Amino acid sequence: MSGRRSRRPNVVVFVADDLGWGDLSSYGAEKISTPNLDALARRGVRFVDCHASSAVCTPSRYSLMTGLYPWRSPLQSGVLGGVDPSILSYGQETLGTLFSKAGYNTGAFGKWHLGMGWKRLTGERRSAFDNEFEPDLEGDGKDIDYHAPIVDGPLEHGFHRYFGIAGSLDMPPYCFIDQDRTVGVPDQEKEPLVTSQRNGYQVEGWKDDEVDTTVADVAARWIRDAALEDVPFFAYVASAAPHRPCVPPSFIRGSSTAGARGDSVQLVDWMVGELVETLSESAVLDHTIFVFTSDNGAPTIFPEDGDVREHRPNGLWRGQKGDAWEGGHRVPLIIAGPGIAAAAECSNVVSLLDIFPMFRDVLGVGAASVTDGVSLLPALHKSGGRHECVDNDRVLAQQAFNGMLSLREGSLKFVFGSGSGGFSSPKGRPGAPQSVFNQLYDLREDPRESENLWSFRTREADIVLRKFSSRTGLYLRSDGVVGSEVD
Q1: Stretch (H or E) spanning 414
Q2: Fold of 396-484
Q3: Which residues are bridge partners to 387 per DSSP?
Q4: Does domain 7-387 sit in CATH 3.40.720.10?
Q5: pLDDT tens across 83-141, in order?
Q6: How far apart are CA 150 and CA 94, in angstroms?
């Protein structure tokens, strides 16, 4: 055990799907109870102004995995379908490659949704890196050869072990993937299709409500075995819950007072509890950094979402998943582990982009590539209580569902477009740098984004855009689309 304590810390990163800023009881939820996550917050730092780089899942996960803004990927707006190709380029540095090169045993479990190299019945494999690529969100996957191995998945991007699902639980194929093969052959029509589920194939005996419990079990067993090895481990665990369809298993059903979606949030909390218990039983909890977050804000327009006035899944923030408004991309972030301040709260503006450079610092490795994030490591060693942390002299960008750019500098938030850019009405569209339909909010004075100040302060938009471009090489084109200097 003494040798184990002297090595680098183990790491677990847990990403929930569509879990909002206000869904945890440690962030103010009253209709939902999340005791395991609350305990994690008491052991570590809770970030109250953290943002996903996108308000939807694929681009957000790309940024978490790489430390890069989503506009640097082939996917400039929207999300991938379940059988779309990978948006990670070969050789691209990811959390998986970062830890693998540092000598860690690496495993990824659960939802991937960054694309995979499926082989079609014609023998072809699509690429996201050609000029004709368009995501096929509604693809049914019936043209895929499920007998063939999958390439360009987690195993090619730094993970020694993978078990999970290709996309969201509403996307075919409805099957598990173990390493580079489907578990069974999906050759039966998915039945029943639950709420938002798309038409496609499932494997025999597929049960939606067993996905997350199975993922938690496989991840826990891998952690238990990895804890016995002489090298540290990195586990990336991504739940399907509480994304639609909300299908909590029977032992969770009815556990909240916020309906099926509230129960699904509590399923996420149960999963975290299972992993923490495994770490404790394996005598490595005190030597493991545990990160919990969500890929974007919660939706508020579907029947499963329940009464969003009784339970506000995004807290007081305006908007929902997909939106440029705060509810679309402000997410919970909790980090606990050895040497990390307990019961602390960080009030600075931070991003999921910052997790990648944070782990570079933790590992003490040099930068193999440029990232868009700022290391969160300084925030983890402050004493308890509320405090400011991390260099806040930054311009932070977020992407809405339609690719719309918003920029945050201090308390000012510039939205370059009209409407939400996502699922809330009016949806609007991206705007040019000086479009009269753009938006500006002062979140210190107006946290609900109710008063648009754009017409009074347009000169500030030029300044913040120049800062963003000079620091990233990204710029806003006249058609409202974000471009790169290498385009």
Answers
A1: strand 412-416
A2: Arylsulfatase, C-terminal domain (3.30.1120)
A3: 346
A4: yes
A5: 999 999 999 999 999 999 999 999 999 999 999 999 999 999 999 999 889 999 999 99
A6: 19
